């Protein structure tokens, strides 16, 4: 689990993990160089909950989602973990959510990553994510949408094979990580999970969604479609081009340059009109930095 200036969410997530009916698990929280009081509060939580097998790892820099999670992955593998569970700190888990993930992993030799049903935190029967079967390259920065977004689960369902899983919760086999590696840290933030999903499939592994494992994610059903801050726009636009370069079919590798030209032209026009200058500038910088091969953490 990764923490960055959000200790309240992390502690609530840890409280839900403390109720797991699966006991053979160790919890690593990597603090990504928080600037608030996260580390002392996490250490106090650990002291007050001695029965929880919890370790706090202090990173001396903000390595992003990709780099921060890679630190935890490396430590888990060094200590002999058979599986690594990546979990966002702004989630709450069902006490029995690990069992269906483990069951799917053990019955299917080629299942590399398994994800649970991820519901909205405030609308607890409404799906936020349950896997994605197709990348819509024409949409570029919005290429990976969720076919189960805002859907409800009815009746008896079985695990389904998908082509993309979100980094909000990934249950990954040790063998897969040893063969494929962790996240590509050039992404820093956004699309690193898509890249990992695609790299694993190129090596012959499959991705699965299992509906009976459940967690709840603190995202808004009304505000989610917006990319939000300039930083988010920067990383989305830079990183989708890196993803397309690495994994897109030949036509996408040509199309993305046309898309980039049109996108930059539109943002320049918006700046001239005095509209959304900060966001437009971030989009232009993101695309420019892709061509300059400036990856990793950006300083906006």
UniProtKB/TrEMBL annotation:
Keywords, in A-Z order: Glycosyltransferase, Transferase
Question: Per the UniProt record, which residue ranges are transmembrane?
Answer: none
Recorded protein name is: Glycosyltransferase 2-like domain-containing protein
Q: Which PANTHER family match?
A: GALACTOFURANOSYLTRANSFERASE GLFT2 (PTHR43179:SF12), RHAMNOSYLTRANSFERASE WBBL (PTHR43179)
Stated family: Belongs to the glycosyltransferase 2 family.
Positions of the Glycosyltransferase 2-like domain: 13-180
Q: Which domain of life is it from?
A: Bacteria
- Asked if the keyword Transferase belongs to this entry, the reply reads yes
Native organism is Candidatus Spechtbacteria bacterium RIFCSPLOWO2_01_FULL_43_12
Tell me which Pfam families the record gives.
Glycos_transf_2 (PF00535)
Q: Which InterPro entries match?
A: Glyco_trans_2-like (IPR001173), Nucleotide-diphossugar_trans (IPR029044)
Q: Name one GO molecular function term.
A: glycosyltransferase activity
Record flagged with keyword Ion transport: no
